[in-house]
Amino acid sequence: NGTPATTGGQLAAATYYLQVTASPAQTSVEQKIYQVGSGTVTTGSTGSISITLPTLTGFVFNVYIGTSTSPTNLAVSASGPSTGPLAGMATQLASGSTVVLTGVGAAQTPPAAPATGVTVFPTYFFGTDAYGQVLLDNVQYHYLRDADKSDPMNQTRVVSWKMMYGTIILNNAYMARVESGSAFSPGYTAGTATE
After folding, report:
1. What is the b/e burial string over 36-72, where b = at least 16 CB atoms within 10 angstroms of the residue's CB?
2. From the CA atom positions of the chain, what is the Rg in Å?
3. Average pLDDT of 35-60?
4. What is the sign, positive or negative, of the torsion defined by CA atoms of 172, 176, 177, 179?
5. What is the reported pLDDT for 195?
6. 84 pLDDT above the threshold of 80
7. What's the Cα-to-Cα distance from 158 to each of 64, 148, 150, 153, rounded to whole Å?
8. What region, left, alpha or beta, does residue 39 occupy, with left being phi > 0 and alpha being psi -120 to 50 degrees?
9. Separation of alpha carbons 113 and 70, rounded Å
10. Domain spans of the chain?
């Protein structure tokens, strides 16, 4: 839950529900979904809410806001990006920072929060013809056949190859993401499993 103030924003008098999500800074894919707060009451017509984000090294945060227990908007905050399509929104926020939410921003629904103590593991399925690939350049192989300055006895085998191809989605209906829940939680550091 946040701490309300009667000034500093554009929030009308109401009860606002906040939800925080965390993403690894390198991928921006929301991986940690926190439960929706119990509600923060603002008064007046220029209200704002300050919230302190969790401390997680390597993660950035989004804050969602709404007047129902299922927020469907990003909050507005000067702490968010200053350029791009989400400029001024409460997204890409620094770990452990205290941010001031000044309004209801762009419509964006957060991922559903799992039950407390449950870790969700995504699995992806790709059916035949879900995507296609085009070969842009034939495979090129390179290897050392004879002795050279770095290997005068010709005992080292070095082989390399490269190729270029493009990939395109052909049919979204042939792809699925399935989420499984477990009470067993692996350790994660910035989105990488540490098991």
Report:
1. bbeebebeeeebbbbbebeebeebbbbbbbbeeeebe
2. 24
3. 93
4. positive
5. 45
6. yes
7. 53, 12, 11, 14
8. left
9. 10
10. 3-107, 131-169
